[in-house]
Amino acid sequence: MSNMKDSVNYRFAHQSEAGMIKNFLSVNNMHINDIDENIGNFILAEIDNKLIGTIGLEVYGDYGLVRSLAVDEQFRNNGIARELYFKILALSLQHGIKQLYLFTLSAEIFFAKLGFEKVDRNSVPFVMDKYLDLCHETATCMSKFIFNEAMLITKDIMQLKTNFRGYSMWSVSLDRTTLTYYDIGPNCYFDWHNHKSEQITHILEGELYFELGNRTICVKKGEVIAIPSNVFHAAFTKDSAVKAIDAWSPVMIR
Length: 254
Known about the structure:
Layout: H1 2-7, E1 9-12, H2 18-27, E2 42-47, E3 50-60, E4 63-71, H3 80-94, E5 99-104, H4 108-113, E6 117-118, H5 129-134, E7 140-145, E8 161-162, E9 167-173, E10 178-184, E11 189-193, E12 198-205, E13 208-212, E14 215-219, E15 224-227, E16 233-236, E17 242-249
């Protein structure tokens, strides 16, 4: 069992793999609607480049829908389904999701062990009404509030998302705290702004400049700047790229 678990590779799906995923889910008697539009939030399990498991996430603001959890029959009962679930749980934190929902015909006991509870399907947030029309009427609806347990977020889940302003980032939020990582290109400017969240920035590489009132501060590698709530500031890089970590409290809304 441990050798098999060590040989499993987990990764995000590519848009071009939608057809392959649909075929896999069809073989495993799973719902395949809306795969294409949610493919960026699908995680695949592979052994020797063979698809053996899937799970997906649909994002609806503070709510998330766990979907398409399937493991090839040959590889079941080896902890792969649990690992897929914990990776989608970590992805949910990056999206700022507070509560997860799912529908299942056969895995109620499995999800109950993971902390999910049965709920009335009519209590599902209205933004997911379209899914109710597609889901079998006998499916069990389950839900879980996800800010009440510790979670490991592995490197393969930390997606860097590129912003049109010239930087890439990932973000993880709990109920009252957000942590963000920034990979900022040269000559990038963040215009004057303020926010309710307190901000603590730690520079990992390079130099990041902050404008505060009538002064400019250069924060160098290994240094930290702490910015209280509602203080107006701007920030910019010069000729070199910057890597930085920000901590925010309360949660930074983006």
